[in-house]
Amino acid sequence: MSKLTRFTVSLDDGLLERFDEQIKKAGCPTRSKAIADLIGDALVKQEWKTGEEVAAAIIMVFDHHKRGLSTKLTHVQHNYHHLIISSQHIHLDHDNCLEVVIVRGKPEKVQELAERLKATKGVKYASLSAASTGKVL
Amino acid sequence: MSKLTRFTVSLDDGLLERFDEQIKKAGCPTRSKAIADLIGDALVKQEWKTGEEVAAAIIMVFDHHKRGLSTKLTHVQHNYHHLIISSQHIHLDHDNCLEVVIVRGKPEKVQELAERLKATKGVKYASLSAASTGKVL
Amino acid sequence: MSKLTRFTVSLDDGLLERFDEQIKKAGCPTRSKAIADLIGDALVKQEWKTGEEVAAAIIMVFDHHKRGLSTKLTHVQHNYHHLIISSQHIHLDHDNCLEVVIVRGKPEKVQELAERLKATKGVKYASLSAASTGKVL
Amino acid sequence: MSKLTRFTVSLDDGLLERFDEQIKKAGCPTRSKAIADLIGDALVKQEWKTGEEVAAAIIMVFDHHKRGLSTKLTHVQHNYHHLIISSQHIHLDHDNCLEVVIVRGKPEKVQELAERLKATKGVKYASLSAASTGKVL
Questions:
Q1: pLDDT tens per residue, range D29-65
Q2: What is the C-alpha separation between D66 and B74, in angstroms, rounded?
Q3: DSSP-assigned letter for residue A134
């Protein structure tokens, strides 16, 4: 575990006041935590542009009645098996399923897998949620 | 399962040509699938602004060594237990964990839960990935 | 002009180190400026959700040969004339024009105007760039 | 001006129904226009990842009382003068100014200029609004 560093920030007092209000609304315990969150978001964005390895969740909605769809999705996932940590399947209703695939790898490969899954006929919705392996955080 | 409707679209030929190139690159099987994807994304965005019920994944990175953190995260999740379908925990390395919480409910409540989890001391990163219960798709 | 307030932040040392690298790359002069920027972005996002008055630019690309298009765009803009501060027109090439409309008003009205302009036949692209009247900054 | 191409799309009837509702709400005149808009947005996103030349607006908020700020902003803009088509200045109130700089060039250079302007001490807010030279549209 890493140590804490203390440093001083000079901020326009009006800006700080409004930031404090927002922190309070969001239920954030301290200014330091709120600032660390903003920095973390900025670093993760940067990591997705230039980084070596990221973590992410790909979230999909599809109709499991669609013939051959499960087989196709399994097939695509197998072609990227080295990226996939695990996946989770939720039955939303009689027709719709939600599948969340947790992945780890190079940003461009992760994006490629998300595109391939989205392009699969029968997948109604797919989106990629960027996260981090935690090394930059 | 729903039926297919056929309809005709008139599009600038240059625009169609460039769209066809992009479809090919993304490995999308047909124009109809590619157009359905764009429409689906637009409807899900709309659903998050005005809809009754959405599905989503909240993805978090944290250091499990942080004292009391697991207890706090469990506590927050219990306060929103009616929203949570399931959650999944991945050990990224010696220190970092990735947790993906799959949720379903009113958009503003889902966003509130994501904010509460993000505001918890020790959580290094949290982001909300919008999805859908599939009803608008 | 407002005064500066000084306060101390405690941050994980690894996180601070990586933030300092990013600050340096972006050519940002001080940590305080970089943190003020992150806070400003967060406050402007919030303002667009809940605020009274925002500023924005609506940027459009269209083909000025399209018959009646200029008249239609002028007509839409007149219906929202109380929002519009000014607009600027650039001839990109023989066919394409770029128009940037600077607006100020309630977030939902500004979004409505952007939608109306985008929906006008002949407008090839339109996007809304969120900014602020500066009061929250 | 380019010709129109007509082609047929097969879409899930429920999805089409909900898309028609959204089109109506946004005041869009035809399905073809609504689909062209979605395609245009997707192509412009792609152009910013891989394209040769884009157009954009950089929108900034700053306090013109800040000593030396105008000089600094002019200086930064001069270093990128080959990118800048024009800029527009609005007096928001006694303190705050809004400046919109319209630019054209390689995506990475445009992003670099936006970063440099944002990093300038005294600039309270800056954001980049992606647009297109119209060639992909």
A1: 999 999 999 999 999 999 999 989 999 999 999 998 8
A2: 48
A3: S
Same-domain status, D125 and D71 = yes
CA dist list (Å): A21 to A14, A15, A37, C42, D90: 11, 10, 16, 12, 29
Judged by CB atoms closer than 8 Å, whether chains meet at C137 and D44 is answered as no
Residues D38 and D58 in one domain: no
Within 50-69 of A, beta carbons closer than 8 Å to B belong to 55-57, 59-61, 63, 65-66
- The number of distinct structural domains making up chain D is 2
ipTM, two decimals, is 0.91
Residues A63 and A124 grouped into a single domain: yes
Q: Does C26 touch chain A (CB under 8 A)?
A: no
Task: Tell whether pTM > 0.95.
Answer: no
User: Measured between CB atoms, does D26 come within 8 Å of chain B?
Assistant: no
A26, A92, A131: residue with CB nearest B125: A131
Residue A58 domain-assigned (yes or no): yes
CB D129 within 8 A of CB C129: yes
Q: Do C57 and D55 touch (CB under 8 A)?
A: no
Residues A35 and A84 in one domain: no
> Based on the domain organization, do C63 and C125 belong to the same domain?
yes
Is A10 within 8 Å of C16 when comparing Cβ atoms?
A: no
Q: D110: domain range?
A: 54-130
Q: Residue A104 pairs with which residues in a beta bridge?
A: A55
| D86 and D68 in a common domain | yes
